[in-house]
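Example (one chain per record):
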Amino acid sequence: MPVPVPRQRAIPAVECGQAPAASPDSGPSKEQAPPGTHPADNPATRREHPTEKREKTTDETTDETKGETTGDSADGSTDRRESTVPTNLTLLLIEDDPGGSPIVPDLLDQAGKPIRVRTARNLTEAERLLTDDVHCILLDLALSAPAPARPSAESTGNSNGDSDGSGDDELAVLRHVLELAPRHAVLALTSSSDAERGAEAVAVGAQDYLLRDELDGRLLSRAIRYAVERKRSDSAERRLAEGRLRAQENARLERGLLPTPLLEGSPLRFAARYRPGRSRALLGGDFYDVVRTPDGTVHAMIGDVCGHGPDEAALGVELRIAWRALTLAGLCGDELLGTLQQVLEHERAHDEIFATLCAVDISPDGRRAGLCLAGHPAPLVAGPGRPARLLPYDNNGPALGLLPGARWPRMQVELGAEWSLMLYTDGLIEGHVGEGRERLGQDGMVELVRRQFAEGLQGEQLLRATVNEVRALNGGELADDVAVVLLDRAP
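Predicted structure:
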């Protein structure tokens, strides 16, 4: 015959490795200490782990209909089979009337696993028991609101403080819980005579409301599962909406940072293609710009900051804006690049960051151009009866940010009466050709563009065909940023 065990608070099987003992007259499964009792003085919690003192699984209860203790075997030994039962969901019950608890023992999740229940008498206890493993909160709307949340007589304009005080207090409790647990599902518990208050609780932010008089184990289990899933769905939808808003804002910002060419009054035609290497980005480390100064000279520039992240993209924007300002201020050639290097040295995050750049200034008559290269690939020029070729790059200077006090000589080149000038970044020529390790390179790009010219392609069509063929040769998207600028002059 089993040895009688004094009645005490049930300890979860997962805590102690054994099923708890309980008296046959034990009621619904809840955990609390008598009012005013310190946890250390409470015999029901003396041997518990401090973080688990109000926690139990709902299957660790007494079978009242049979008058047997489910945790003990016939010979008085403890049955350890319950210690392996996993718990999926945890419910935090917040109510100030433990004796009238609506919780029934049979709380199971959809997989048939027991739902763990914790009980708090007030919001202070609830805050202590609200750990990350709690999935749902069952809040009694009749609970007294915390003192700071109660509206004062001055704020309500009511000297006796009892006008609509009860309703305000109920919602104040809910608002306090929602602020305390913004990521948790919340169920509001109210009486049948106050169903309207439950509906208002849902409008405030609760996932659902339950009527205390109609509550049973099956209804509560289903409501908990529904509330948890609805909260997850709402949170996912909110994160998705926030992500879309951020993406739209970033897109508007990045589009605003891309240049608008200033070519009013120039006979030259302009076209550009830009594709960042970063996934789902509109702006990369490549940058370009074209402006026409009052004397009729057209200045074009293309550059590449080493790296592919947002910091490099931001630095590229700074260099582009600085180049435009310096160009409109009358600087050109070596003087402009030297000043631009100073900007880079002051704005870069690390001394290892550098940028390559190609700058071209086309004379007002359009027949000649000055060329400065700072570690950048030479432009390509083509015209009627003249196959595509690279401009001279013998006097290519160092990339910006590598050598303090460096110089960048300006080379004079003849363009002729009719021509197409293509400026590009190395992302266009570093793609692979086929499945091997061979890269397209400048020679391969020249041949590709030469064939496109022979087919009569010009302007946007030429750039689109060139980038698409380079991508096809690579077998997919190019890993690096790609920027291409095309200037055409017709007689």
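Caption: The longest helix spans residues 217-257.
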